[in-house]
Write a structure and sequence with these properties.
By secondary structure, the protein is mainly beta. It is built from 7 helices and 32 strands. Strands 2, 5, 8, 11, 12, 14 and 15 form a 7-stranded mixed beta sheet that branches. Strands 6-4-1-3-7 form a 5-stranded mixed beta sheet. It has a 5-stranded mixed beta sheet with strand order 30-28-25-27-31. The C terminus is likely disordered.
Length: 434
């Protein structure tokens, strides 16, 4: 029967149909690939996503990456980015032991047939993983005190609100954990506190153990903090002898460090000390400028001592001269630059000067220390208003320290009486201020 079918017309028609389909598919493929040829694209360092096991923990957890090559139509391949590529290793059904796991490549958003027809290849194509049984054990909580409260305060033992946490992970790592530690800093605390501390797992040497989970991850810790009765914080103050300050100077400012000290002693004795302790006296004899000195604090008893072991205070004192103003009268006004043959009249002939400066310098000034001069260089006969200049021979004072009263004088320049002037050459005097 098969032989009769093979020789029949129906067999011949079916053969031609198959050949036609193959030929049409080849023509379509050639047409498509000529318009949009096949292309390849590689993506390096694509991270491998691990789907964890439900019953075991992976212990060889170093970072893994793979190189992925995709192949397909050029327009589709060229539009892909590294973010579109996912490499996954599925451990969800694996138990403890060593396993070779194939890597699965997924191209996200396969929204077209061309994306679905992409061919992808990962290098390496598989990874070797080690899985250990999961374990959970309770571990005690240990609070590590980083810094104690400030000097003069004491603290009780920190009290966590729970005594232990559950540590979970690979058996080998959980076995290393001896405690869950939290770190506490009391350096700025002067009153009872309650804080939440984050915990971390530590081994017998105090080193952190990673890749384990703690439940809970934080603990609430309360600490009672109170003032010590055998230590007292007392303010200190420099004992500056102001009455020894030289005349003409004043104390502008003073600063010192420390401003308080911690004194240790019997509680009943500390209770009788005043709120402020003074330093040894600081003399200002012959001091005319700022200086820094170190002086000890006077303690009211030999059986008291300073906690730091050093009861010295560094004192910085700023001394400045007292500023005063003084008026000096009857200073004669001189002139310079008058051409020969002319005479001059200056009104007023004497002026007053107001001098401002350190009182020790201003008080000793006399008329002889000041010179007032009018410059007449280049002036023709006439009447002028001029501003005189002043010179002061006190080295630490300058013209900026002096003001004149009045600050303008009237000057008249004339020819001598025995000289005549050609009537054809009248001389018109300059107007004041010219």
């Amino acid at each position: 029967m098969i032989q009769r079918f093979a020789k029949s017309d129906m067999a011949g028609n079916l053969l031609w149909l198959v050949v036609s389909l193959l030929l049409a598919t080849g023509i379509w493929y050639i047409a498509v690939t000529s318009a949009d040829p096949i292309g390849k694209k590689s993506f390096r360092s694509i991270p491998v996503q691990i789907v964890p096991s439900n019953t075991a923990e992976m212990t060889n957890s170093r970072t893994r990456t793979a190189t992925v090559t995709i192949q397909g139509l050029q327009t589709t391949v060229s539009a892909r980015r590294a973010e579109d590529i996912i490499v996954r290793a599925d451990l969800s059904r694996l138990g403890p032991g060593t396993h070779t796991v194939p890597l699965e490549v997924v191209v996200v958003q396969p929204d077209t047939d061309s994306l679905r027809r992409l061919v992808s290849l990962a290098q390496p194509s598989q990874i070797l993983v080690e899985l250990e049984p999961l374990e959970s054990h309770e571990k005690k909580i240990a609070i590590e005190l980083l810094q104690s409260p400030p000097v003069g305060f004491r603290h009780d033992e920190p009290l966590p609100n729970i005594s232990s946490v559950v540590v979970s992970g690979a058996a080998s790592r959980v076995g290393q954990v001896v405690a869950a530690r939290g770190q506490l800093d009391l350096s700025g605390s002067r009153n009872p506190i309650e804080v939440d501390l984050r915990l971390y797992a530590v081994d017998a040497d105090g080193n952190r153990v990673g890749d384990v989970e703690l439940d809970p991850q934080t603990v609430s810790v309360s600490v009672n903090i109170a003032r010590r009765d055998d230590i007292r914080q007392i303010a200190v103050r420099p004992n500056v002898l102001l009455d020894t300050l030289p005349a003409g100077f004043t104390l502008k400012n003073q600063s010192y460090d420390p401003e308080s000290i911690f004194v240790s002693g019997a509680p009943e004795q500390l209770g009788n000390i005043s709120d402020t302790l003074f330093t040894e006296p600081i003399s200002l004899v012959d001091r005319q400028e700022g200086f820094v000195t170190i002086v000890p604090v006077r303690l009211p008893g030999d059986d008291l001592f300073v906690m730091s072991g050093d009861n010295n205070v560094t004192v910085s004192i700023e001394i400045i001269p007292i500023i005063d103003s003084r008026q000096i009268d009857n200073i004669e006004v001189a002139y310079i630059g008058l051409e020969s043959g002319y005479s001059v009249s200056i009104v007023p002939k004497a002026v007053s000067a107001i001098v401002t400066g350190p009182v020790v310098m201003v008080d000793v000034l006399t008329v002889e220390n000041l010179q007032v001069v009018v410059d007449l260089n280049g002036l023709a006969p006439g009447v002028y208003d001029r501003e005189p200049s002043i010179a002061i021979n006190q080295a630490d004072l300058s013209e900026e320290n002096v003001s004149l009263l009045p600050d303008v004088v009237n000057v008249e320049i004339v020819l001598p009486q025995d000289e005549t002037v050609d009537s054809g050459a009248d001389i018109a005097p300059s107007s004041p201020g010219s």
